[in-house]
Write a structure and sequence with these properties.
This protein is an alpha/beta fold. The protein has one domain: TIM Barrel, CATH 3.20.20.100. The protein is about 40% helix and about 20% strand. The strands form 3 sheets. The protein has a 7-stranded parallel β-sheet. A two-stranded antiparallel ribbon has the order 1-2. Helix 7 packs across helix 8.
Amino acid sequence: MCFSSFLKVSFIPSRGNFYIGWVRCLTVKYKELGRTGEKIPEIGMGSWQLGHGEGQVEALRAGLDAGCRFIDTAEIYQTEDVVGRAIKGKKDVFVATKVWPSNLHYDDVIRACDASLKRLGLKQVDLYQIHWPNKTIPIEETMAAMEKLVDDGKIRYIGLSNFSAKEMQEAQDTLKRNTVVSNQVEYSVLVRDVEKELLAACKKEHVTLIAYSPFGNGAFFEPRFAPFVEALTRIGAAHGKSASQVAIAWLLEKDPVVTIPKASSKEHVLENIEASGFKLTREELAAIDELCKKYKKSPLVPLHLGSLLKHTTFWHGSIAKRWMEGRGKKP
């Protein structure tokens, strides 16, 4: 990982003085977003369960200053305002957010986007994603609203999240003037369900797969996976890298994958970014695949349960919102 440093001068109103310090600028590699021709950082910053304090804002800003110019959020996370504070005054930041499944009727999509833009402090968001499919609302109606948002200049690109390969194709088939550029799903060295079908479909259709929860939704810190993490630590030691960096590097070997680990602290953000450009050997990749035969984790929402929820009115109820909102408020 190559990096450089530069002097940053900041004025702190509460103290009435200036602060001068060195900021490390890391070299983050980029990958093309879908068929757009535009490239985005292969490592972004996620904001689910991020918290709302100044520490979280500073963590995001540290990532931006270090060269990680890609942030993902969602209306249900209740962190769009945090992201808005972090990106205020910043240029060339790729911002992605999502619309909740209960807001997928045409007028609701428009209203939800307007509200997200206000919270983010933006006139246009780069990537607007459907958070989950909702089979009780016609996908044609939802995608028509998404295209209207593109036409009106409120969003640049249309994305999906938690869509199966079939659902992704159905969504694409309803679009008239645009293409689906991304599908955000859970994917990690411990949760590899997308490899059954979706990963190949994304590669074939030139849809970027945005991997969330690259550390197995916290499984890296569970005692039962300690031997697995220790094995990754040994692999990373040969390169001066941590187990977390090995897990990210493993993900980024896959095409067309980028990832968005949570920006929990400045230290973790910088550690995540330093995995960009790090390459594992063929032997190391094979060793990790062998480990994965023994160490596996169920996805956050198992496939059978996710399929059931997509065909019900669950997303319209208060239980789903309380679950997501409650987790989103954790510090």
